[in-house]
Amino acid sequence: MSVERHIAGMLQQIARQQDIVEIAPQGSTPKAAALAHVAEQYGYTYGMAYRTGFKNSLVQVRVYRDPQPDARAREAATITAHPQAGNGGTVPGLEQSSLKPLPEAVAAVAVLKDLITFHVMAQYIADRSQKVKGYLACAVLTAILLVDRSPIEAVASGGAVALLFTVAFKVGASRRGKIAQRLTDAGFLAVRDEQGGQRFLRPGQQLPGHTNPFAA
Questions:
Q1: What pTM did the predictor assign?
Q2: Which of 43, 45, 92, 96 has the largest count of CB atoms under 10 Å?
Q3: Looking at the predicted structure, is the pLDDT value of residue 212 above 60?
Q4: What is the distance between the alpha carbons of residues 81 and 104, in angstroms, rounded to a whole number?
């Protein structure tokens, strides 16, 4: 799908003043962040992100309409400044016919990219039960290999897979920790959602389903 169609599709949802707008730019987190930034200029606020589609190849971002007066004022100013957005005209924060952020929008898009990445990684960060299952699978693999290989080969193969699991767990946790620190430094507040997952919200922002600006 072309850049223009991505932008036009999102702005059509916004024009209908939908409470929730879905953004799915073919699996690219930077593109999703750029589009989420545009949506925020029209009075929406980032809500959540997750992977979906065939082999989880698609990054889906959900933004929520913010009813606060400053959000509505931001929307009005954006409509006035970009009357042809979605019809070939300029789009707030992005280069013409591109999802590349303008210099003044780079920092804001980077923050949204971190929010999206942090949220998406939550689907893959192993909790204790996942780790137990992973290491149990290594033990099963070792037992299977013992049938037609020497004990040394079987244990070495199972141990190698277990080591890969361990490295993957640690690398994922480390990367997510660095993102969390950047979001904290940017003024976001760490909270827990109803499932116990960690989320980052702007000061005064609420989780979806509680109060505005996340009135689902």
A1: 0.75
A2: 43
A3: no
A4: 16
